[in-house]
Amino acid sequence: MMTSETPLIPDSFFQPVQTLSTTNEKLRWYTCVLVMLSSTNYPDVIPQVYKHLDSTILSRTDSIEARKKAINRVREGLIKSTGTVGACRTGNAMRILSDCIPAELRELESPRSKETDEQARERGMKFWRSVYARNPAFDPEASVRASPDYAFIVRGKKILFLRKTQNLYASHVLIGSRSALRENFLVRWSLGWSDDWLGDGC
């Protein structure tokens, strides 16, 4: 059985994040990269990105609460990507990321489990409206006219997914994870990775 070594990310890959001026912008960049690696099935590269994130942001953050908040934002990005790339790839990435994170920065409970279904549903629909209401050409009934059965399925999944998510980085993550799947070949080419690294996923 042939095995492959985890590819090394060149230092040049991290040059763009050095040009960003704020911590929030840098954290968003790292989050999108981690989601991209998860979406394209390269979770074994995540420790390299986390190490850079730690040296650039986490180790320079004064309080443990601020570091925990930053990591929670990264985890939130991965959670949101579940809706477009599936639970298997997200789970692989989350477990590998967890191995990188010191115990004091790990989550010990689920914040979403503490809210009622009604609260979660209202928050999720508020986010959904904030995304689609900005598009004057969007017709919410078009899917129903096209196929009532399709509309029933996707709206059911939409509620299950969106009602339990928060608005943090959602647009970047959802677009990023979708784009990552489409642009997988560009990622492999730019980093010098061969098709051997394109796993089957789940």
Characterization of this structure:
The structure is a single chain. The protein contains ten helices and no strands. The two termini are 20 Å apart. It has a domain at 11-113 and 168-197. It has helices spanning 15-18, 23-39, 46-56, 64-85, 87-100, 117-132, 142-146, 148-162, 170-182, 184-191. It is mainly alpha-helical and 202 residues long. Residues 158-202 have low confidence and may be disordered. α2 (23-39) packs antiparallel against α3.
Helix content: 55-70%
Radius of gyration: 18 Å
Derived from helix and strand composition plus strand pairing, the structural class reads mainly alpha
User: Can you give the mean pLDDT?
Assistant: 77
Shape call: globular
pLDDT < 50 stretches: 158-202
